[in-house]
From TrEMBL:
GO terms for molecular function: hydrolase activity, acting on carbon-nitrogen (but not peptide) bonds, in linear amides. Belongs to the peptidase S45 family. The keyword Signal applies. Pfam families: Penicil_amidase. It comes from Micromonospora avicenniae. This is Acyl-homoserine-lactone acylase. Transmembrane segments: none annotated. CDD domains: Ntn_CA. PANTHER family: ACYL-HOMOSERINE LACTONE ACYLASE PVDQ, PEPTIDASE S45 PENICILLIN AMIDASE.
């Protein structure tokens, strides 16, 4: 009890002051007036937050997010402050927690975030006062709730009474944002940055390994591991009401800090947006206002470039630039790690930086030798524009106004934007932050041995010994070192645009986007089955050939399309596969055993080609695909990219081998089981049936999980998360939305499982933007939060 009182006093002391940011920001007078926000909780716990200014709006957001997800926010603060090992343990000096801690401690020692906050407050050079107020209010709101409840009385067992739960500072919020910005850059190469050491140097045993960096290097493009998305922007020619529509269908983790949180935020006359943001962020990142809606999909563009350094003989920490030696800078940081006896012991690492950025190693490919080292430039490492960019997106009136916002702020760290407006125009843009590797720079500065890597994957290795090979600056770019708007793929259409994590090329097949730098993505290459299905679904709806009434989209038809759960790979090859296994009812699996295929063949023959709860055989087909069985006999045609390839390679022995492997993998799991009986999500002692499935099989409603032998697929890892189908018209927005994993991570919250059960039934919550829509909610509950004068 006394500890809770002491914590309450500490939070009270911190709740209304700026910590670690130096001089008080402009607009600090709002602090003297205190914070006050109205919260209207609608069905499923979704908060509609209204405040007179951005500081109070942030307070409301921080308060409600703490009510629902305090443990997630608190743990993220531990991560970005480099304290995971201290609080969550480590198996040794090479543990992932240790590597994470060293990386983030380095960012703290470099004062990375503090330097990003220093500059002209125009939203490009440094965050505006509005955003600083929003962040300050968020921290204060979180702290207010924590002080009110006390750590020892939190209802979430994940962090109740835990010593690592503490008040937030503004720097915690900014550090969390920075970690998100560098997710596809520095953070993706974290292992390689921590491992980098000059030849002959010693460090923590085994820390020189860099498994995460190697995985990034092996990736075919720049998409961020573990996340993806589908999105449609539908114009007047594709909708029944001739206004714009947007499908948002991000595929994000179902657990951890990358969960979305639904909310509606309003400062009257200045900001009014409904949608979702990541937990811990005080802004809407996917959503809509009265006349514009947008979503994001993960882009294929690369976020960093390599620089090959020619080292000075006898000094592997000096490199040549234009023939002159230049010394690397070093910084030693220390993380506190539990030792064998449980006591904290220091683990230190010395990092090496160049004027390009940190030195990185990927053993076997990018080694640090006596003559060569490699550094990276992560163009998002200084991206302090994101919150301001999303704020201005929420204020845009139509897609052309949105395009002007994108041009000015160039803030999207690793995502495309797909949007539509009430006028009936739709927009696609890979307007993300991309290193300025032009065709000319690539030809002149990528050494010959690395040209094939660039051509195949977009990873650029530049000659770091010449200043002429630096990234340079485009005149229209928001900041130096990134591609300016004129070099980025953008398309505005009256029919539709789409993206499902392939490159920009076929945002609309009628008007391919071509001629852009390779670092953004590939052109004229095969598309994924998910991309092809997404395009096919739109075309069938426009033609009225999808079995649904009429032509063109409404919110209802769009919902039915997304959750139609077609398995496009099965549509293409199932019949040929069944014919093949009927003719050859036995095959040899990869482990050499002979497998009877008759049961599998019968199941696939009866399968409905969907991934619905009642579908029998969907999991069998998915295992067949994951085992490498989806091999095509015909070639991809650039003239018919949506429909090719499409014929099963029935003469390839690997096809039946994959089916045999699938049967073996499903030992103890009925081949003809209902998908909903084997694919579930736990909520307390309940197992909620989950529809959808793997993108590799060609399923649009993506659900990724791990097979547990003899059990099935008992936990979703990532997949469909915040789903929104919004129509825009003269009377404002309407439509459907859902957060598949529910609003709260707290098992004692009433909003822990309700939307998950709704998703299981293909249900929805309605768009609630206008006052009439909000007040019509039968579960509406209103309360006010705040502190300071008048509270």
């Amino acid at each position: 009890m006394k500890s809770s009182v002491r914590l309450g006093a500490a939070v009270a002391a911190l709740g209304l002051i700026v910590t670690g940011l130096g001089a008080a920001p402009a607009g600090a007078h709002q602090r003297d007036r205190g914070y006050s926000a109205e919260i209207r909780r609608a069905s499923y716990g979704v908060p509609h937050i209204t405040a007179a200014n951005f500081a109070s709006l942030g307070f409301g957001v921080g308060y409600v997010q703490a009510e629902d997800n305090l443990c997630v926010i608190a743990e993220t603060a531990v991560t970005v402050n480099g304290e995971r090992s201290r609080w969550f343990g480590a198996s040794g000096s090479t543990d992932a927690n240790v590597r994470s801690d060293l990386f983030y401690r380095k960012a703290m020692a470099d004062r990375t975030v503090e330097r990003m906050l220093d500059g002209r407050r125009d939203g490009v050079h440094a965050p505006t006062d509005e955003i600083r107020d929003l962040v300050r209010g968020f921290a204060a709101g979180y702290n207010s709730y924590l002080r009110k409840v006390g750590v020892g009385k939190l209802t979430d067992p994940a962090c109740r009474g835990r010593a690592w739960v503490r008040p937030l500072t503004e720097l915690d919020v900014w550090r969390t944002s920075w970690a998100s910005m560098v997710r596809a850059g520095s953070a993706a190469m974290l292992d390689g940055i921590v491992a980098a050491a000059p030849p002959g140097a010693t460090g923590p045993a085994g820390v020189q390994d860099a498994p995460g960096a190697a995985a990034v290097l092996a990736a075919a493009d720049g998409t961020t591991a573990g996340i993806g998305s589908n999105a449609y922007g539908l114009g007047e020619a594709a909708t029944a009401n001739q206004g714009g529509m947007v499908l948002a269908n991000p595929h994000f983790p179902w657990d951890g800090p990358d969960r979305f949180y639904r909310m509606h935020l309003k400062v009257p006359g200045r900001y009014d947006v409904e949608g979702a943001g990541l937990i811990g962020d005080p802004i809407i990142e996917i959503g809509h206002n009265r006349s514009l809606a947008w979503s994001h999909t993960v882009s294929t563009a690369r976020r960093f470039v390599w620089h090959r350094l020619a080292l000075v003989p006898g000094d592997p920490t000096s490199y040549y630039l234009d023939g002159k030696p230049r010394k690397m800078t070093t910084r030693t940081v220390t993380a506190q790690v539990p030792g064998p006896d449980g006591r904290l012991v220091p683990v230190s690492r010395t990092f090496h930086d160049t004027h390009y950025g940190p030195v990185v190693v990927v053993p076997g490919t990018f080694d640090w030798t006596t003559s060569t080292a490699y550094a990276i430039t992560d163009v998002n490492a200084t991206n302090n524009r994101a919150f301001d960019g999303w704020l201005q997106m929420g204020r845009a009136s139509d897609v052309r106004d949105l395009k002007r916002v994108l041009d000015r702020y160039q803030f999207l760290p690793w995502v495309n934007v797909i949007a539509a407006d009430a006028r009936g125009e739709a927009l696609y843009a890979d307007h993300s932050v991309i290193p300025r590797v032009t065709d000319a720079l690539a030809a002149a500065c990528i050494p010959a041995e690395f040209q094939p890597m660039y051509a195949s994957s977009g990873q650029a290795v530049l000659d770091g010994s010449r200043s002429a090979c630096a990234l340079g600056s485009d005149r229209d770019a928001a900041v130096p070192g990134i591609l300016g708007p004129a070099r980025l793929p953008v398309r505005i259409r009256s029919d539709y645009v789409t993206n499902s994590n392939d490159s920009y090329w076929l945002a609309n097949p009628k008007a391919p986007l071509e001629g852009y730098p390779r670092i953004i993505g590939d052109e004229g290459t095969p598309r994924s089955l998910r991309t092809r299905l997404g395009l096919d679904q739109v075309q069938q709806r426009l033609e009225g050939t999808d079995g649904l009434p009429g032509r063109g989209f409404t919110a209802e038809r769009l919902w039915q399309t997304v959750f139609g759960n077609r398995v496009y790979g099965g549509e293409l090859v199932r019949d040929d596969l069944v014919a093949l296994c009927t003719a050859q009812p036995a095959a040899t699996a990869s482990d050499g055993t002979t497998v009877d295929l008759r049961g599998a063949c019968t199941t696939l023959g009866r399968w409905d080609l969907h991934a619905d709860l009642d579908s029998r055989g969907a999991h069998l087909f998915t295992e067949f695909v994951l085992a490498g069985g989806l091999r095509f006999a015909d070639a991809f045609s650039v003239g018919d990219p949506v429909r090719t390839p499409r014929r099963l390679a029935t003469t390839d022995p690997r096809v039946l081998r994959a089916l045999a492997d699938a049967v073996r993998r499903l030992d103890g799991i009925a081949l003809d089981a209902r998908l909903g009986d084997v694919q579930t999500e736990p909520r307390g002692d309940r197992r909620i049936p989950i529809h959808g499935g793997r993108a590799e099989a060609g399923i649009f409603n993506m659900i990724v999980n791990n097979r547990v032998p003899g059990v099935g697929y008992p936990k979703v890892v990532h997949g469909s998360s915040f789903v929104m189908a919004v129509e825009l018209g003269p009377n404002g927005p309407s439509g459907r939305q859902i957060l598949t994993y529910s609003q709260s991570t707290n098992p004692n919250s009433p909003w822990y499982a309700d939307q998950t059960e709704l998703y299981s039934q293909k249900g929805w919550d309605t768009i609630k933007f206008t006052e009439a829509q909000i007040k019509a909610d039968p579960n509406l509950r209103t309360y006010r939060v705040g502190e300071g004068r008048g509270h």
